[in-house]
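Input (structure):
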């Protein structure tokens, strides 16, 4: 089985820019691109295979055809054709809204879909870039509503200075906002449910204030004082460094200057490589070699047992799974 690349879906946004295009190395698009959905199986947003034997097939159809060979026996039993990860690049030219995502129970009750927990790997930042994650004090639903109404919500948000290589975990229920000047990779549950809490009184292209979801967010928010959500890890060349292992995603960093063979013989699951820097040739057992460059994502089917990674001058990969 070969490794499988998909055609990204580019999302124009009010707050997006042109760094994704520059990062990926293709001409700037006329729209402000805020997100590049690299790997996704959601209604209306299914990425399709970009090349090779399965070219043009949407991800859910590919899962239906290959079943456990693509995602693993347990994953197919649990998720069927609903691929359990959504992989993105995000370019924040200006601040994103302050927002929150519902957990599984609330999302299924209201929207018949999974909740949305996510993690961020910061690729690049402009000087002074920051993001908010959680509260800086204990909150109550009543104070939350008062501060939204009085436009003082920013005073109780916990802000973090941000640098390339930083990793943050964003569980469902935690208020957050990605600040201006940040380019990052996001690994998340396959859900697009976002409750907008505060948007700096920003107006859309038609001059209208963007809708807030104050009441919907009220039951989704975790009001507890947030711990430091910055993930502590020690960078190390030429070995696997675990970043996060949660019920929804597992992510490690491979910062390689020398060839490495990844053995997935005991793993009953797919693997996703997100190239966040450099380039490499990937050689799966029994499959064709594949070049992966900065800004690209590739799916390693569950039936692939080993992948040899051959860096070309150095490569940084996020190794993701469930």
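Output (sequence):
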């Amino acid at each position: 089985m070969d490794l499988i690349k998909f055609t990204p879906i580019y999302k124009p946004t009010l707050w997006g820019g042109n760094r994704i295009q520059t990062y990926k190395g293709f001409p700037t698009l006329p729209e402000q691109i805020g997100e590049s959905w690299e790997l996704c199986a959601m209604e209306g947003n299914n990425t399709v295979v970009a090349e090779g034997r399965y070219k043009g097939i949407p991800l859910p159809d590919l899962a239906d055809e290959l079943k456990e060979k693509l995602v693993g026996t347990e994953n197919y039993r649990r998720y069927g054709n609903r691929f359990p990860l959504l992989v993105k690049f995000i370019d924040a030219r200006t601040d994103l809204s302050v927002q929150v995502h519902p957990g599984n129970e609330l999302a299924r009750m209201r929207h018949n879909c999974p909740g949305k927990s996510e993690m961020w790997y910061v690729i690049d930042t402009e000087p002074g870039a920051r993001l908010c994650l959680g509260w800086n004090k204990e909150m109550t639903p009543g104070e939350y509503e008062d501060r939204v109404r009085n436009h003082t919500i920013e005073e109780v948000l916990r802000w973090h200075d941000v640098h390339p290589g930083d990793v943050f975990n964003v569980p469902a229920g935690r208020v957050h906002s990605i600040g201006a000047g940040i380019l990052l990779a996001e690994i998340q549950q396959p859900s697009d449910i976002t409750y907008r809490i505060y948007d700096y009184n920003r107006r859309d292209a038609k001059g209208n204030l963007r809708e807030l979801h104050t009441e919907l967010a009220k039951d989704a928010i975790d009001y507890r004082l947030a711990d430091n959500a910055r993930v502590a890890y020690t960078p190390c060349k030429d070995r696997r460094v675990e970043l996060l292992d949660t019920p929804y995603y597992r992510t490690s960093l491979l910062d390689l200057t020398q060839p490495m063979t990844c053995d997935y013989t005991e793993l009953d699951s797919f693997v996703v490589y997100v190239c966040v820097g450099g380039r490499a040739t990937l050689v799966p057992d029994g499959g064709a070699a594949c070049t992966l460059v900065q800004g690209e994502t590739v799916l390693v089917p569950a039936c692939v047992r080993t992948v040899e990674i051959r860096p070309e001058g150095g490569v940084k990969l996020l190794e993701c799974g469930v």
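Notes: DSSP finds seven helices and 20 strands in the chain. The two ends are 20 Å apart (CA to CA).
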